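Case study.
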Amino acid sequence: MTDSAVGESLAEVKDLGLARGGRVLFESLSFAIRAGELWQLEGGNGAGKTSLLRILAGLSRYGFDGLVSRAEVPLYVGHQAAVKGLFSARENLSWHVSGGCVFADEQIEQALQRVGLCGFEDTPSHALSAGQHRRVNLARLFLSEARLWLLDEPFTAIDAAGVSELQERIGGHVARGGAVVVTSHQPLHVDHTVHHLSLDGARIS
Amino acid sequence: MLLRRQLSLAIRRPIEIGNPLVFFAIVVALFPLGIGPASEQLAMIAPGAIWIIALLSSLLTSDSVFRSDFDDGSLEQLLLAPQPLYLSVLAYLCAHWVVTGLLLALVSPVFALMLNLPAEAVGTLMVSLALGTAVLSLVGGIGAALTVGLKRGGMLISLLILPLYIPVLIFGTAAVQAAVSGAPVGPFLALLGAMLSLAIALGPLATAAGLRISIDA
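After joint prediction, the assembly is written out as follows.
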């Protein structure tokens, strides 16, 4: 990862507004995500957390008001694991559709070890559990060189030990000058300032 | 890289490769039953029949090109990937062509024999099928991209894509018929080649746009 100047803007949102099904989820939302910042999106079910994250990632391009700009391609981890059952964990990562053969075998092994999948590297993924699928996907956090991470409910289906390991990783990334946006209903336990963005009434604190 | 990924996925599900071929074989076997085993009659309809079946089997499989990736979220990741979507789409469709169209072209002499197609036309049949099915895969990709977000896209994809298949059918059949009657086949194959060039240039662009729309919805 390239060390970036803390404070450099990685993504910016101006006057963002979104309505779904005739209901305004949020409007005139403006903020910038800078290097070294950790953001937590909060809000009840249906508050628009995932929608906002998809807009930030660039997956949603229409149907909202306002401007979104990104400095680079973010790492997006969504609800779906993007894990192919026919591939082993190792193949899923080395042949991942976003990236392409850039990871050495040892890197992948290390990453899988970090997410607690040591010994499962070559098991076909259809033999793994839902939580293990999520872990295979989250191993990308240990491989990716993207500075901006957009994580949608990353702790779903992960056990307590895995959650604290992940939070440590998120904290480490922010400390190294990355930026992370997390949607989660769980409080984050990191020694870092967490910017809270609550979508119930769209308040930034 | 993506090409290799898609091909290994396909090889680990041999049934998906085998199904179109078996479909092809069964429909070819239906013709003598429906029309009667008179060999002249069969030979007369053989070029058209083989091409129509190739068209249908390509249509049946094109629905699945992006389906599983859409279902498990890989497609989202593909759209966010740093490499150009044009190339990714081309790799997907190329893999689809290799396991359907190219394979079909390779085994087509067997089916030509079943329909009593004259031996001198078999070479042309293989070449025209190889070229033509590549166009079919590329055009089918557009329909697949547009309907991937729908639960039952199968019928809609036929309605969208079949009209676009017609030129390929016309010139593919014409090439084989020309070979049967001893006329030069070069112009027809050249036309198929031209269609392929056009499809390679423009098809993935339309497919990429279709995927973006489907993911956005």
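Observations recorded in class. Chain A touches chain B through 27 residues (CB under 8 Å). The two ends of chain A are 29 Å apart (CA to CA). We will return to this complex in the next lecture.
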